[in-house]
Write a structure and sequence with these properties.
By secondary structure, this protein is of the alpha+beta class. It is built from eight helices and 13 strands. The strands form two sheets. A six-stranded antiparallel β-barrel has the order 1-3-4-7-6-5. The chain has a six-stranded antiparallel barrel with strand order 8-9-10-13-12-11. The protein is rod-shaped. About 24% of the residues have low confidence.
C-alpha cells in the first residue's frame, strides 16, 4: 500500500488493523500527510463534525468538539465532598443543640463524674462533705464540757496506780508533775501538806455536775479539784464512785448553773476507719484536740503495776489520734460529737497506738457508780 492509499484508508476509517480499536475506543482519527492540502483537511474535519452531530453521541467530546479534561472531573468530586461535609456538620450541630441523643440531660463536670464513679464502684462514702468544718464544729461544741482534773495527795503517799510507771510498756494517760512540791496549784489547796500528784481529764455527762473519768486519775487522792472552762477558780469535787476493774470513776461538783454536757453514744455503731476526736489536757496543755481514725476494735491488753499486779482490759477501742499523759479520762468522740470511748492507756514504746474504753461496756458500770451516791 502506497502512502496515498494509507491516508485515504485513515480518513475513511478503513484501516483493517485499527477497526476494532476504532469502534471501541477512538472512532475518529486524524492524520496530517504531506500530499494533502489544508483545504482538504478542513473539509474532512467539517464532515466529521457533521457526523458527530447526527450520531447522537459526542464520543466523550463537548459541544465545541473538545474532550472533557480530568481537571473538570476532579473539581466536581471535590465540590461534592465539600457539600456533603457541610450537610453532615449541620446535622451534627442541630442534634447537639437540641439534645437529640442525650435526652436533655445536663453534662456533669469531669472531676465530679470521676469522683462519683470511683466512690460508687468501690462502695465508699465520705463521712462528711467538709471534714475540716465538721471537726471544728465538734470541738467548739464539745470543748466546754471537757474538764481538767487534779489529784492532790499527802507527801508520804505513794503515787499509786496510774501515776507511777507501768510495766510492759503500757502507761496511763494521767500526768505526773516533775516538781509537785513547787507547783502553784498546791498553794490553793485547803492543806499546805497536800501536793499535786497528777492531772488528767474528764467530761460532764449530766448538767447537774456529774463527771466521768478514769479511776487511775483519782486513785489515792486526798483531794480532787476540777477546772471548768469559763470559771476562774477550780471546784473541789466529790468522788461518787470508783471501779478499778473497769478503770472508771464518777465525780460530782456543784455550781450555780447547769454545766454543758456530752452525749454518750454507742461505740458498737462505729466502724474501723471512722474519724475520731480526742480532747484532753496532755502535759498540762488545756483543751488540746487531736484527730485520727478508729484503728481497731475489741483489743485486749494487760497492764502490769509496779507492785506486780496485773489488770486485764478487753474490748478496747484502738485509735491513732495522738494521746499523751494528761489525756486519761478524756472523751473519744465520733464525727457527731458523741462520746464513744474514754481514753485510758497508751503504749509508751509506740506511736499512734492508744486505747479507749468503749461506751458499750460502761453503761452498767456507770449505773452502779451513780447508785452509790444515793
Amino acid at each position: 500500500m502506497n502512502h496515498n492509499e494509507f491516508e485515504n484508508n485513515q480518513v475513511n476509517g478503513n484501516d483493517t488493523n485499527n477497526t476494532e480499536s476504532t469502534a471501541e475506543h477512538k472512532p475518529y482519527t486524524y492524520t496530517y500527510g504531506p500530499s494533502r492540502s489544508a483545504a482538504n483537511l478542513r473539509e474532512a474535519y467539517e464532515n466529521q463534525l457533521q457526523l458527530m452531530g447526527t450520531g447522537g453521541s459526542d464520543g466523550g467530546y463537548g459541544s465545541g468538539g473538545k474532550k472533557k479534561g480530568k481537571k473538570s472531573q476532579a473539581k466536581a468530586m471535590v465540590a461534592a465532598f465539600l457539600v456533603g461535609a457541610v450537610v453532615i456538620s449541620g446535622f451534627m450541630y442541630a442534634s447537639d443543640k437540641t439534645n437529640l441523643f442525650t435526652g436533655n440531660q445536663q453534662p456533669a463536670a469531669a472531676t465530679t463524674l470521676a469522683s462519683n464513679t470511683a466512690q460508687q464502684s468501690a462502695g465508699v462514702t465520705t463521712a462528711s462533705a467538709n471534714v475540716d468544718a465538721s471537726i471544728a464544729d465538734v470541738y467548739k461544741a464539745a470543748s466546754p464540757a471537757v474538764v481538767k482534773i487534779e489529784n492532790y495527795t499527802e507527801p508520804v503517799q505513794s503515787n499509786g496506780r496510774g501515776f507511777g510507771g507501768r510495766g510492759g510498756g503500757w502507761q496511763g494517760f494521767s500526768q505526773t508533775p516533775q516538781s509537785p512540791s513547787g507547783s502553784s496549784q498546791s498553794d490553793s489547796t485547803d492543806s499546805s501538806n497536800l501536793q499535786l500528784a497528777g492531772t488528767g481529764t474528764g467530761f460532764f455527762f449530766e448538767s447537774s455536775g456529774y463527771i466521768l473519768t478514769n479511776d487511775h486519775v483519782v486513785e489515792g487522792a486526798a483531794q480532787v479539784k476540777v477546772q471548768v472552762e469559763g470559771y476562774d477558780e477550780p471546784f473541789v469535787a466529790e468522788v461518787v464512785g470508783e471501779n478499778a476493774d473497769q478503770d472508771l470513776a464518777v465525780l460530782k461538783i456543784t455550781g450555780s448553773k447547769a454545766f454543758p454536757t456530752l452525749a454518750i453514744g454507742d461505740s458498737d455503731q462505729t466502724a474501723i476507719g471512722d474519724w475520731v476526736i480526742a480532747i484532753g489536757n496532755p502535759y498540762g496543755f488545756d483543751h488540746t484536740m487531736t484527730v485520727g481514725v478508729l484503728s481497731a476494735k475489741e483489743r485486749p491488753i494487760t497492764i502490769s503495776e509496779d507492785d506486780g499486779t496485773e489488770h486485764q482490759y478487753e474490748h478496747l477501742l484502738q485509735t491513732d489520734a495522738s494521746i499523751n499523759p494528761g489525756n486519761s479520762g478524756g472523751p473519744l468522740l465520733n464525727a457527731k460529737g458523741e462520746v464513744i470511748g474514754i481514753n485510758t492507756a497508751v503504749n509508751a514504746e509506740a506511736q499512734g497506738i492508744g486505747f479507749a474504753i468503749p461506751t458499750s461496756t460502761i453503761q452498767e458500770t456507770l449505773k452502779q457508780l451513780l447508785g452509790k451516791s444515793a
